[in-house]
């Protein structure tokens, strides 16, 4: 998961790389991050998580009310609530980048071509609004929290 995260952080900075490549690694990294926490912190059966592509948004909500986050935002719970609310749509958009998620309602994904109005659309040619979400203040806060979740996981797992 951390290698996917590192690739995402490298690719998202580069303007010569199509957005779909960075977004693909972001989707994979966040999916694996959520699964890693579930495996570590619960007795969830491996088979129950291997084929699922959603769960990151639920993980993010849990992480944002973890003891370390509550301690950091002690006395400023309104700001933490605003951060949680602002991150929910971004987390949901990142989950939908997986080809197996929301295929009917939103066929666009960062991995495989899809058909739209009789034409094939390749991810490299698609203007993903998700990349623009990440560049705004809520997106930067989202990426900061994801980075912190990776760091926290690694520090506890060592």
**How many angstroms does the end-to-end distance come to?**
15 Å
Count of β-strands = 2
Largest sheet: 2 strands, antiparallel
Helical proportion, percent range? 55-70%
- Give the helices and strands as they follow along the chain: HHHHHHEEHH
Structure class: mainly alpha
Strand order of the largest sheet: 1-2
Radius of gyration: 16 Å
**Assembly state:** single chain
Mean pLDDT: 87
Poorly predicted residue ranges: none
Range of strand content: under 5%
Overall morphology: globular
Number of helical segments with 4 or more residues: 8
Question: Layout of helices and strands, plus pairs?
Answer:
Layout: H1 2-13, H2 19-41, H3 46-50, H4 56-64, H5 67-72, H6 77-95, E1 114-116, E2 119-121, H7 129-135, H8 137-157
Antiparallel strand pairs: 1-2
Helix pairs in contact: 1-2, 2-4, 2-8, 4-6, 6-8, 7-8
Describe the overall structure.
It is a single chain. This protein is mostly helical and 158 residues long. 65% of the residues lie in helices and 4% in strands. It has 8 helices and 2 strands, in the order H-H-H-H-H-H-E-E-H-H. It is globular. The model has no long low-confidence stretch (mean pLDDT 87).
Q: Which features would summarize this protein structure in a list?
A:
single chain, 158 residues, mainly alpha, two-stranded antiparallel ribbon, 8 helices, 4% strand, globular
Compact description:
By secondary structure, the chain is mainly α.
């Amino acid at each position: 998961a951390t290698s996917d995260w590192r690739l995402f952080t490298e690719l998202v900075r580069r303007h010569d790389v199509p957005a779909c490549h960075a977004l693909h690694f972001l989707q994979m990294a966040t999916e694996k991050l959520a699964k890693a926490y579930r495996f570590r912190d619960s007795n969830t059966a491996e088979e129950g998580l291997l084929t699922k592509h959603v769960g990151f948004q639920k993980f993010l909500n849990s992480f944002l009310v973890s003891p370390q986050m509550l301690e950091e935002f002690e006395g400023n719970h309104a700001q933490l609530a605003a951060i949680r609310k602002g991150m929910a749509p971004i987390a949901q958009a990142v989950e939908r980048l997986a080809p197996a998620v929301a295929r009917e309602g939103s066929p666009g994904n960062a991995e495989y071509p899809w058909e739209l109005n009789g034409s094939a659309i390749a991810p490299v040619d698609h203007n993903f609004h998700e990349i623009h979400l990440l560049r705004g203040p809520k997106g930067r806060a989202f990426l900061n929290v994801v980075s912190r979740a990776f760091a926290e996981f690694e520090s506890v797992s060592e």
